[in-house]
Amino acid sequence: AGRHLLNLINEILDISRIEAGAMQLSLEPVNLDDVLHEALDIMRPLAAERAIEFTAPVRTDRPVYVLADLQRFKQVLLNLFSNAVKYSPEKGKVSISYRSSGEGAIRIVVSDMGSGIASEKLSRLFTPFDRLGAEQSAVEGTGLGLALSARIIHAMGGGIGASSAIGRGSTFWVDLPRAEPPSIAEPEHSEDEPALDQ
Questions:
Q1: Contact present, 63 and 29 (Cβ < 8 Å)
Q2: Which of 65, 103, 118, 163 is 20 to 30 A away from residue 137, measured at CA?
Q3: Closest by Cα among 37, 41, 23 to 156
Q4: Which residues pair with 178 in a beta bridge?
């Protein structure tokens, strides 16, 4: 109960900071494969409790980079992954993928096998404290995770959305700007440096 209350307070504070323009973001090229697998590693114990299987992209030789604040991006991914696990049936599957989306953007997609969300409720998904009736179920939550995720993604210049159908599960997506790989700076040598003794 204490952990749940602390999470609730932190989420409210984060939303307040974003809306006040006081959240500090450090945007940088983030290796998408790395952050996806880091978030998945954190989620695996929770998924194992319910025998949920994750399918994720295989690492490639040519990494894809997005422009994001690493810690906040990971926070959004953890929220989407944990929701997918919580709302999927035991022994279900959660699929994670990414692809190009429009001009210079990458779309990350998280699909679950849950009971789905009625179309008339989709517009309320990112409303703070609105759990769309899930408060009457055994699934724990505050109704703030998606609202906070949306604000973080928008603050990073991206987009977020979802599609769902009753009995067919839900799919959430996040768009972020594609970034160039960080350049590896060559060490600079001054011509005036003394030569080493041979």
A1: no
A2: 163
A3: 23
A4: 66
